[in-house]
Amino acid sequence: MSDTAAPTVLYLVPTPIGNLEDITLRAIRVLGEVDTVLAEDTRTSGRLMQHLGLKKPMLSYHLHNEHQTVQRLLERLGKGETMALVSDAGTPGISDPGFLLVRECLAKGLKVECLPGATAFVPALLKSGFGAERFTFEGFLPVKKGRQTRLKELASETRTMIFYESPHRIVKTLEQLAETLGPDRQASVSRELTKLFEETVNGTLPELAANFAARAAIKGEIVLVVQGREKEERIKEDRYTNDRSAD
């Protein structure tokens, strides 16, 4: 049976990152038609379903149980049950569980469909004012092991870089990026996107670090966008390296 003829059994359904009006008509239809909803947090997704006037069986599917539950889900999907996978906010599979289930479904010939919809990094990228023609999505930096190695690898990145970060680590991340990329590198911090207190702050990495360090509290999920290394910056470093080699 061809892929086009096979029925879809798993749908990846983006949900609003804050503003409930950002749910699509297609997402509402799919959530209403599937047999089961797989949710990162059934309480969070349950409130969305209630808001939409939908009642469906829900199963918990998150980072800590996906390896244990994936085989049982595959058996049910293989028998023709349809499921929608949602995360707490945004598109499932982007810095959220989903990859493992999708991979295993495809390996078994089960059709997967991904709906377009809300994701946090796109509005943050466009609001930064940096080039969006070429960019790299880095997600969350390693918290401990491998963090410094990854930062050093990014020092030569010429594309705009996008990171997700938590409120309690954003100052440290900005400071470390300033040390690695230089004090003149421009960046943009967006938080509470699509919500009432949405905010985007632009400046150099040290300026942003000082801005957020001075706050009594930082709330909301954060998207950090950092300008890529410019040509002039590369020329200066290459010239410095050549001069050092001649000594």
From TrEMBL:
It is an enzyme of class 2 (transferase). The keyword Nucleus does not apply. One of its GO terms (molecular function) is rRNA (cytosine-2'-O-)-methyltransferase activity. It catalyses: cytidine(1402) in 16S rRNA + S-adenosyl-L-methionine = 2'-O-methylcytidine(1402) in 16S rRNA + S-adenosyl-L-homocysteine + H(+). It is found in: Cytoplasm. Residues 10-209 form the Tetrapyrrole methylase domain. Catalyzes the 2'-O-methylation of the ribose of cytidine 1402 (C1402) in 16S rRNA. PANTHER family: RIBOSOMAL RNA SMALL SUBUNIT METHYLTRANSFERASE I. This is Ribosomal RNA small subunit methyltransferase I. It comes from Hymenobacter wooponensis.
